[in-house]
Write the structure tokens for this entry.
Amino acid sequence: MNKEKTASEAIKFRRSVRVFSDEDLDSKKVENCLRNATLAPNSSNLQLWQFIHVANKNILKKLSKACLNQSAAKTANQLVIIVVRKDLWRDRANWNADTILKQSKENQISHKRLNQAQKYYKKIIPTLYFDFLGVFGIVKNIIFQLIGLFMPTVRQVSSTDTRIVAHKSAGLAAQNFMISMAGIGYDTCPMEGSDTLLVKKILNLPSKSEINMVIGCGIRTEKGIYGEQLRVPFKDVYSYI
């Protein structure tokens, strides 16, 4: 049995594995890694994500084709699809507001924080996320840019901006998942090359959902690692001020 790794060990162990062995994964362990994914930091705690864990061989075969028959998909023992659900922003905002209200009744939070949270989830979030055919987003963008002439303000307020924010949050969750998998000796490969419409059709996902990435899961083989890990020199990407 593999000894669980420290965070640093897991990060160094993680590689994008292109070819997996025939060894089966414990689905419950993969599920536990996805529970860790849900603990990732995310914008406004809206958690605009969904995780589809696939072990069914027939579905795996269909998804492999949708992933352009990449080896990381064809040889994967299981697949995890990271889905962005920006369409659920209103439901998730209401859930946050209701949960915090319940906490206040149980004296877990102060009335000041309750009022701040209610204002945030009932007024600010709708202001940021509501849009209609992109028109309201343009208006919001103009207003916030004008505010920025006089004081610091959030400037990314269009529908495209909030979409990017949702995908960034989903990416953080995906990283949590992959590091957790590495921590128990399981391998992964994140894939962006896929027919996302076909993936959504296979999984019967709503039209407004978006595929963030498909992650192949399994145990690495020697030919699944394409040489040493290549990274730009640290001095070229690091600044200390």
The beta strands are 49-54, 78-84, 187-191, 210-218. The first strand starts at residue 49 and ends at 54.
